[in-house]
Amino acid sequence: MHFVKLVAPLVFTGLSSATQGFDTFLGPVFDIHSSTNVFSPFGGDDITRELSTYCENITNTSLMIAARVTSIYADEPLFSFYYSTDQNKNVDEGTVFRIGSVSKLFTIYTLLISESYDIFSRWIGDFIPELVAPTEAAPILNTTNSFERLTANWSEITIGALGSHMAGIARDYNLGDLANLPHTPGLPNLTHSVSPGCTDENSAPTCSRSDFLAAIQKRDAVFEAFQTPAYSNNAFRLLGYVVEKITNKNYSASLRSLVLEPLGLKSTFASKPQDILGAILTNATDSGWSDDIGDETPSGGLYSTVKDLCSLGEAILSSRRLSRLDTRRWLKPSAHTSSLFLSIGMPWEIYRTNISGRVVDLYCKSGSIGTYNSWLILVPDYGIVISELVASSGDLPLPPRLADIVTTRTLQVIADRQARMQRLVGWYHRRSAATTSVESDSLQLVVPSEGPGLEVRRWFSNGIDFLQVADDYSRSTGSGSLLSVRLYPAILSEDGRELRLRAVFLTDHSPKSGLTVAQMGGVPQLFGQATEAWDNVDQLTYGGQALDEFIFQVDSIVDAVTVRIPGLRVTMTKDVS
């Protein structure tokens, strides 16, 4: 890389549009306030038919499904879908389902509201003194044949480690322990003294806090803290105790006072609501509707509706109960998994997808319990929330498939609408004199025929073709020929009246697709093919002012009025003709 050069794109040769990518910043690529029509309800007839056909092709299975799509920029849902094979039970936005591990999101949100983001750096022993003191030495791996246990080093475990599944502790306490079932051939007999005395299933008494804390300190560590994500329900049971310590209330009361009541989530419950409200297949016992999982509730015991889950997601994206800073910090990965497409947050499962040639991050939390499966999906780049709740009598790939269909189709609709309803598109001018036809300064912005962002089609500065100047400069620095210049949102003022965009200069020396791993001579190109936008932004300046910054002023009717380019010391007015 040259010390100073123009920003490079993701250029593709011989790739289909499905794998084509563009060099962008992480985050929105359009002004999300561009038009209220972008976030108006879409009939969704095609999506409804696709979902209905998929459900109808599933035979010998009882189903109840609720799905809902909302936006923080719209008052009405964008799309909804309800389905039931029970002729006596209709499903709608108010039907209550068990949400399983989506409960973990409520637990983290409660901690954030009560203590702010700083809570994640606190040591777990500050809140649960029964755990090992921070001065106690870490356990040493035994090298003999005595099978000595290597327990977790609690002195290294923080609230954030627990919330991001990075604590390396056991997944469950006695949930699913085969010793609670009739003897299985091939397993050794256990004496009563080592057999679990309680469980958080209906087959044995519910485990108490003292039972749990005594047992978890005896369990082997899975990994060292902060080594790799390892899913842990135990971590969120501990976080439930942390909530109680901080608020001096039980978990249910804390959740109600800090989250449910302020957000108006009247159909979300920490214990079983009336059966008449629920999506119950067969009966309340066999479906898992009535299972009381005790202190595991912060991990997976809540009940809710698609309406309430969407309201929760909108509150998160709107920073309704948190500062905007804490929201931005929270909606980021904490660790990667071994998949190129999945990272982990607190407690997010962050999936990465390709929308119109760019990476879009989906902040998700999924859950399952009994016959119930749930998804809550936040798309910060688009201000979109998707919730999906399923009750099914069969073991099906249905819930993730439905989430695939609803999420993909929704983002395709929104991305297409934004491309057609871009309020910054048009000509901007500043003439040197009223009597001359020569444009001293002008800028034309268009929606590109392919890919995201806004394209600079023409750009004149002091009567000179500035795109040609940029091309000459790029060639002189060895950065290649300029292909195009695209603008992407960087900072939006709180009142939405000022939009600061940054330019990405695309050249023919750009790396290959950031969405695939290219090869050269049979060797994967591991380096030099990723996005360079993040590396080169704000690099080119003139007299201490950025040449890649474009500042738009917007009037009260949400139309662009002017654009200022600080590096060129020029302000241009939009042509309204």
From TrEMBL:
Keyword Membrane: no
One Pfam family here: Beta-lactamase
UniProt keyword Zinc-finger present: no
Domain Beta-lactamase-like ARB-00930-like C-terminal: 417-574
Range of residues in the leader sequence: 1-18
The Beta-lactamase-related domain, residue ranges: 83-394
InterPro entries: ARB_00930-like_C (IPR058664), Beta-lactam-related (IPR001466), Beta-lactam/transpept-like (IPR012338), Beta-lactamase-like_AB/R (IPR051478)
Coiled-coil regions listed in the entry: none
Domain of life: Eukaryota
Keywords on record: Signal
Protein name: Beta-lactamase-related domain-containing protein
Organism: Knufia peltigerae
